[in-house]
Write a structure and sequence with these properties.
CATH topology of the largest domain in chain A: Tetracycline Repressor, domain 2
Helix content of chain A: over 70%
CATH class of the largest domain in chain A: Mainly Alpha
CATH superfamily of the largest domain in chain A: Tetracycline Repressor, domain 2
Radius of gyration of chain A: 21 Å
CATH architecture of the largest domain in chain A: Orthogonal Bundle
Number of helices of chain A: 8
Shape of chain A: elongated
Structural class of chain A: mainly alpha
Strand content of chain A: under 5%
Largest interface: A-B, 40 and 40 residues
Oligomer: homodimer
DNA sequence: AATAAATTTGACTCAAGAGTCAAATTTATA
DNA sequence: TATAAATTTGACTCTTGAGTCAAATTTATT
């Protein structure tokens, strides 16, 4: 009996609780990130974020250490997802162009889904966090740049300054969050598809 | 004599003074706009903006009514310039594509020159100002959309959803301000040129 | 039901930064 | 040099919003 309860205490409950806690914490970050995207980091107050979750500001601090921590994690959440996508398409596609098409499509798709958004407010992060986020962004940009360069090497992509090309493409993605409202006239899938098409012809070598 | 001095008072001096005042006011707005772009609207304090002009915060309020007024006018300044550019290319170019190339090049060029930057913080404007800015942005987007549609009609531009195409192109421009630092590896002219090229092939009908 | 842990809250403190204003300073004019 | 207008400032006030904390409430366990 006492052994059983010990067991429960040590295995079942803690897991449950921890999972609960983590889920709620993620919910806080997601919800806040959406508010940041809609209204901007500084215009979205903690009180407001709390209210939209049916909580009080004080309760938020049970899950996070500071507002900045939320911003940081919101950034990281997106870059984690993007890293995943980079990994996911790694084996696929043949030419550089094909690989780029797959990845770009995944990116566009991600951004038109569930609240995931590239945030631009990096200046509101303190030195260390800011550096980390910039590093992560750089990592993604480099992954894309590699595909572009591979495409230039195998002649599937037109030769040009790879960096500018990548910025051009990433710019379009970032801007997506500004104008795209889920449930609008155009579906996320359509946009992703059209972005890929647009990107492709803009970049591909005429065959 | 008294007439002469009256005259001077009424004609010469005031003009000088007014011009001086206006020039300084514009300088305040430009300098602040640059700070907003670099550090974000809320991270750039009035004190900081004043200091970079060799002034005191209080002095700023001799030229502007509020921080928000600065943000508003900074936005308007850019849209005025863009309207000018739209007008400037109106007569030129033959096909829709050619017109679009000219305009897009001018836009890119403007953004890589003297501190003019598309600001994204629109949520920090109060209702009326915000509405005005959104209207101005809409006006520009519509002007670009018209060119795209003209191009689709005369077959110089590939048929697709014009709106998405325009957002794609404007996104790349907006993102420019995030990564482009004047005096970097690539000159503004080169970027403008490459953006036009990128845009063109992305959009043009294969001939 | 008693107890302990987890969660939430009301009522605070504190700092930062926008905005004000009377007084000081500078500039131009006669 | 005297004077008046334009410009700038130091020293404020006021608001907003982040963050804290002891106490209240809820949830799970025996």
């Amino acid at each position: 009996m006492s052994v059983t309860s010990q067991h429960k205490l040590a295995e079942n409950r803690p897991f449950d609780r921890e999972a609960q806690y983590n889920a709620k914490r993620r919910a806080v970050i997601r919800s806040a990130a959406a508010a940041f995207r809609r209204r901007g980091y500084h215009n979205a107050s903690m009180t407001e974020i709390a209210k939209s979750l049916g909580l009080t500001k004080a309760a938020l601090y049970y899950y996070v250490k500071s507002k900045e921590e939320i911003l940081f994690e919101a950034h990281i959440m997106v870059y984690d997802k993007m890293d995943e996508l980079v990994k996911a398409v790694r084996g696929q596609g043949d030419t550089g162009l094909e690989k780029l098409q797959l990845l770009y499509g995944e990116f566009a798709h991600m951004l038109t889904r569930d609240g995931l958004a590239l945030l631009t407010d990096i200046d509101s992060l303190n030195g260390e966090n800011q550096e980390t986020v910039l590093k992560r962004r750089g990592k993604i940009e480099r992954a894309v740049t590699r595909l572009v360069e591979k495409g230039m090497a195998d002649d599937s992509i037109k030769k040009a300054d790879a960096k500018v090309t990548v910025f051009f493409l990433m710019g379009a993605l970032n801007w997506l969050n500004v104008w795209y409202e889920a449930g609008g006239r155009i579906s996320g899938d359509d946009i992703a598809q059209q972005f890929v098409a647009q990107m492709s012809v803009g970049v591909a070598n005429p065959t």
